[in-house]
Amino acid sequence: MAARHEQGRKDPIFAVRDLVKGFGGLMAVDGATFQVSRGSITALIGPNGAGKTTLFNLATGFIKPDRGAIEFEGQSVFRRPPHAVARRGIGRTFQITKALTAMTVMDNMMLAAPDQPAEQLLGLLTHPFSWRRQEQSIRDRSMELLERFRLASLAYAYAGTLSGGQRKLLEFARLLMAKPRMVLLDEPLAGVNPVLGQQILAHVHELRSEQGITFLFIEHDMEVVMNNADRVIVMAFGRVIASGLPLEVRRDQRVIDAYLGAHAEDVA
Amino acid sequence: MIPHLIGITPFAHADFWLGVGIVAGIYAIFTLGLQLNVGFTGIVNLGQAGFMAIGAYAMAILILTYGWSPWLALPVATLIAMLAGVIVAMPSVRLRGDYLAIATIAAAEIVQSTAQNAISLTGGNNGLLGFDAGWQTIQVWLLGALSTIGLGDMDQIPLLAVTWITFAVLLTTLLTLQHTPWGRVLRAIREDEDAAEALGKNAYAYKVQSLALAAGIGAIAGYLLAINITLIYPGTYSADFTFIGFAILVLGGLGSYSGVALGSVLLWFVLEGARFLDLPLSADKVAALRLLIVGLVLILVMALRPQGILGKREEMVLRG
Amino acid sequence: MRPPRHPPFFLMLTTASSLEATPSETAGLGLSTGARGLALLGGAAVVVLILIAVKGYQPAAQATANGLVAGTYFALGAVGLALVFGVLRLVNFAHGDFLTFGAYTALLANAFFRLPIIVATAIAIAATALLGAILELAIWRPMRARHAGGLQLLLIAIGLAYVIRNGIQIVAGTEPRSLQVDVTSAVSFMGGIRLGTTELAVVLIGLVVLLLVAVLLSVSRLGKEMRALADNVSLAEVAGVDTGRVIIATWLVAGGLAGLAGVLVAAAVGVLTPQFGFQLLLSLFAATVLGGIGNAYGALAGGLLLGLTQEWSTLFIDPRWKLAVGFAILILTLLIRPNGLLGRPALK
């Protein structure tokens, strides 16, 4: 059992040290080190190919790192499988939204609720009747979240019929069912209209204030980062080249070089 | 090569059609397992006939070699088949779709090969006889009961009834399971394993369970098949059996358990109804023609109406 | 088109010499495909020497020769499978029946129309190539246009397998038949190795064709386009590859190789039944998986290795377990190294 840190303690909720992942000879992540403070909204930025999504996948167990250390709330999650990492309290979205289209919105939400004995065959045998009561309470909780995200009217529609923006909201609402303490958002604003984008950001801030959820998000839009992030981590060439307050990072020469370098190649 | 009907109307052959009903029922049970794997978990189990064989042989060996009572042998043989399902699943379900399919084929081949070669255990190509003494007793009793309503000489009815009642029980069980949280996780894994994992679900464990359950269901189909032909030999549990099962699966509709019954009855009544056409072909060519027709059914359904008759288009997630 | 962020030098060499090698797929020791191929060759030679030492020259050399005979037609069949998978991501379950189709076409030309076996073989190759192309135009292309999923394509392939196989059975019946080839004369060479003249022809023809295919894949424009498609379809299209044309060409080559393989099997084994191709399919899968599914060079190596290993096993165990050896190889590969010796990852 993880020792529960109280909110406000200085220990980082999430830390990565000298993390390395190579594919063949290509080093996707080449010795990344950074920390995320509890209750912060942190942006992970960097030019294309810097290794940001790979880092997310390493952090959440979808890819196995070669070496290094990954810790969540003081406990190692190095090479743990994705479902185990999720159960520790990390939720995530994907670059390409993974709404389960062949299931209804409500099913998507109820799926995500944690601690359901009826999800195990053994549990069904030992709790043959009580699981239905739990289903009802899960349904109620799902409805609350859906209402918060203004998806309630679509509760019984197949997720496949939702628009791209609605699916993004669904993916977000869904992961909250599991009551995560940290949420990784992979380009949460990609492909959504600005109004919806602002709504998503508003949710992020609300959830952080109300529940102390830590957010780490990958983002390309500098204005969004400047206006929303407490701290910024910059990756390039698989490494963390800078981290700190948004304004500091923006002025950091190494960061400017990394981005300019990318643009120079674009021009060439 | 114009076929012409024989002079006798097919419906006079009630006994024949009862036999077809039994075969359709056995295939329907078999295909319920396929539906669980393919339609509801997204894993392509091309080795289902192998589990059927394991169940049937285990049952017969326990009864004949170890003298067990059928009432004990049947559940234990089912557990053995499910264990085989777990063993096959454990290394296989981690593999990508095509590899998984190939792995299950290999597993079934091993079973069939063992059945042919481990002669002291399985009787080799001669097979095993006499395991159905228990059933014979039951059948005599049932026919006695039937004779009170004048149906005493329709000796196919007991097995037909048992087969379809078994199907109904399994169907109800699977439908119930489907509407539980367990079933919900399965459907999520079917579409997108990563999404399910990111929500804390151990996709690997569920896939192993799915295959194990299907193996158990296959075993049950195996017992009924064995009773029907009163013999257990390797040739019955062949890739052709699984292939016909898949045709039934897609015809009835992926993702529809009740569609399995419809698909099986439809396919078998068409295939067996063709017996009444007098084709100038030798027996082995007629057998080939039937398989060719089944192949066409598979292709046409998958190409033109992939959700089959009763499948739901919105639930079609045809992962490779 | 921008080069990747980190272009390690050796990766450029690798991409040039293997069918497909994106960064995530040449994992492991980072050896290029070419280097691994040489290592395999060396390994095989070492094994032969060990067998000679342990079992004596004649038995070991004979087993090796027999293994090469089987290995050539395994390889020819497996290369076709790998090409189709590499370019189309389709596991062609009907491939075994392509071999049957080729063999029976040759039978028709040779035994029925009394054409010389060379002509019959040419007809078989052409006919099977055509079969592949026709199926692509009639079935695979429309299905891809409709965004058919992997399961749909898989089941269609299985259905096709049954249609082709049973179609042949309806026309030709189940009784075993033979091509009009010389089954009696034999040659002795290299100090006691004995092969039927036909078997020798099979090996020589097969190896020559395999060599041609390997060279064409690396050197010809078509070969490069096939490899580009296998690597990344959208990227290839952007680079100007006419995917439709290349896909047809892939089917023609795969079909032609399968047709030839079928004839060679019929010639080497001596008898044909409509089931033989399907019965070979698992061995062809074993060869492709061993070599790395989707990698044509791997399939070539895998086929030869499979044939050799099966025959070498007969030096130690009863020959009727030969097929089981093939299964064992398939299963071991899937368990230990699913991406085969040279191929793309099999784990999700």
Write the layout of secondary structure elements.
The complex is a heterotrimer of chains A (268), B (320) and C (348).
Chain A: E1 12-23, E2 26-37, E3 41-45, H1 52-59, E4 67-72, E5 75-76, H2 82-88, E6 90-92, H3 105-112, H4 121-126, H5 130-148, H6 164-177, E7 182-186, H7 194-211, E8 214-218, H8 222-228, E9 231-236, E10 239-244, H9 246-251, H10 253-267
Parallel strand pairs in A: 3-8, 3-9, 6-7, 7-8
Antiparallel strand pairs in A: 1-2, 1-4, 4-5, 9-10
Helix pairs in contact in A: 3-6, 5-6
Chain B: E1 4-5, H1 14-39, H2 48-64, H3 70-92, H4 97-117, H5 119-122, E2 128-129, H6 133-147, H7 157-178, H8 181-191, H9 193-198, H10 203-229, E3 231-232, H11 239-252, H12 257-273, E4 277-278, H13 283-304
Antiparallel strand pairs in B: 1-4, 2-3
Chain C: H1 9-17, H2 33-55, H3 57-88, H4 95-112, H5 117-145, H6 150-172, E1 186-189, E2 193-196, H7 197-219, H8 221-231, H9 233-238, H10 243-269, H11 276-291, H12 296-313, H13 322-336
Antiparallel strand pairs in C: 1-2
Helix pairs in contact in C: 2-3, 2-12, 3-7, 3-8, 3-10, 3-11, 3-12, 4-5, 4-6, 4-10, 4-11, 5-10, 7-8, 7-10, 8-10, 11-12, 11-13, 12-13
Pattern of helices and strands of chain B: EHHHHHEHHHHHEHHEH
CA radius of gyration of chain B is 20 Å
Largest protein-protein interface:
B-C, 46 and 46 residues
Instruction: Point out poorly predicted stretches of chain B.
Output: 1-8
Question: What structural class is derived from the secondary structure elements of chain B?
Answer: mainly alpha
Strand order of the largest sheet of chain A: 6-7-8-3-9-10
Helix content of chain A: 40-55%
Which shape of chain A, going by the Cα principal axes?
Answer: globular
Please list the strands of the largest sheet of chain B in the order they lie side by side.
1-4
> How many β-strands of chain A, per DSSP?
10
Q: What is the H/E string of chain A? A: EEEHEEHEHHHHEHEHEEHH
**Kindly state the mean pLDDT of chain B as a whole number?**
89
